[in-house]
Predict the 3D structure of the following.
Amino acid sequence: MPDRALITGGAGFIGNHIARLLLGKGWDVICYDDLSVGKEEYIPDGARLITGDIRDETRLTDAMKGCRHVYHLAARVSIRKAVDTFIDDAEVNSQGTLIAFRAAENAGVERFQYASSMAVYGTVEYSPQDESHPINPTSPYGIAKYASERYIIAMGEHWNIEPVITRYFNTYGPRQTPSPYVGVITIFCNKLFAAETPKIFGDGEQVRDFIHVKDIARGSVMALETAPAGSVVNLGTGVGTSVNEVADLLVDKINPEIKPEHVPPVPGEPGDSIADASLAGELIGWKAEKVLEKDISDAIDWNRAQFDKI
Ligand SMILES: NC(=O)c1ccc[n+]([C@@H]2O[C@H](COP(=O)([O-])OP(=O)(O)OC[C@H]3O[C@@H](n4cnc5c(N)ncnc54)[C@H](O)[C@@H]3O)[C@@H](O)[C@H]2O)c1
């Protein structure tokens, strides 16, 4: 019988790429998702969808029975929106994560990957940021992610399950559900297809580490399969690109007539963030392979195809 993995949030952007990768490696894959954002059509052939909320512990525990590995990605992912909806977000992102971890322990799962975020670092004291960078999250989202990391590592010491934490940087690529809050590349693509003006918050000089979703999926699987229990690793490219540069790249490729507009910055967003991902290299032999200028094209093509369907 093949090994079985369950991915919470498996109908979402990153989750469905992890599902595809695992299927390719011969795993039996279950995607557990409430479809609040993710879509059934993103689930690859061969994977099974179980719809449910991660806070439904009985349903989640039953779904995890017989699984060796769990990838926990289900979350409310908008840093910006969480500033207004932080109690609700904490219920899913913190409490929901604890429920998912306990469900995995009770179901007899061996290893549990938690999709954390560069948002845990918050205020930037130096860049690139390694995993020892001070933790000072400036957003409720980052606080909930960090609290969950600590709970998981602490409880993992007492339980018979091995947690591994991956801190993702800004992820782009195909099958990110368009939303006004999440994913600057997806947002800009859709604005430019509609011949509307993309909005840049602040002066646009804020630097992000844009990493392709396939690199994130590969890093998540490598981390869960090989990192020592309790590891915390950044997954980023180590290359910084300003929001202005991303906007210029997309305008150039999609609609050179349009000029983005600058609007006031929003509270709670992290400062410049570039990953130092050398620990992932040392621990799991992972390095990002994709390059933004070249590999942004599949995100553009996918978003264009979705836009053309409407
Ligand atoms: N995309 C990024 O740039 C990025 C960066 C850092 C960390 N992350 C983390 O990676 C993970 C995946 O993010 P994504 O970009 O794929 O987002 P996404 O919104 O596409 O995926 C999250 C999935 O979780 C599901 N979900 C939400 N609440 C749920 C609940 N209560 N019960 C069951 N399912 C629920 C949604 O329907 C969705 O399919 C998240 O934990 C996110 O915080 C993402």
About this structure: The longest strand covers residues 111-117. The mean pLDDT is 95. The pocket of nicotinamide-adenine-dinucleotide is lined by residues 9, 11-15, 33-38, 53-55, 73-77, 92, 96, 115, 117, 168, 170-171, 177 (CB under 6 Å). Residues 4-171+211-235 form a domain with the Rossmann fold fold (CATH 3.40.50.720).
